[in-house]
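Translate sequence into structure tokens.
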Amino acid sequence: MKINRRLFLGAGTLAGLLVGLKALLVPPAGAAQATAPEKFAVTHSDAEWRNLLSQDSYEVLRHEGTERPYSSPLNGQHNSGIFACAGCARDLYSSKTKFDSHTGWPSFWQPLDNAIATRRDSTFGMQRTEVHCSNCGGHLGHVFNDGPDPTGLRYCMNGVAMTFRPVAL
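Result follows.
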């Protein structure tokens, strides 16, 4: 069989596509493998979550969505109180730790004890730390290392994932 330019280029293109497909389907050596699903105290079926939550809260809490910046009334909430999970009512953050990060989402420099859990998030080609409710597993947002003292952390939360309860602190 005679190899001409068209056959050579076609074979090279096909080989490149196969290598690219393999890179998408096979995790790199040393990459974390999928683990068993986490267990949470509060669980519901997908249909139950849909009935319990608003459409926006459902998309964020159950499908790791993100609300539009500056769209949540909780971003401007500066009264004394507690920010809780919209999925299960677990207390998450005190208003004493809230600050204006100028990002468009409610931000805090520290959660309440045992309120949240974190996991690695590598979606969209970024390496971030996802924050979720430790009680129901609902996605809340992400934590970054660019916050104020005393922790230096910025818990950037979706307002639709939380509720606010006024409390004298």
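Note: Strands lie at 81-85, 91-94, 98-99, 107-108, 116-121, 128-133, 139-144, 154-157, 162-166.
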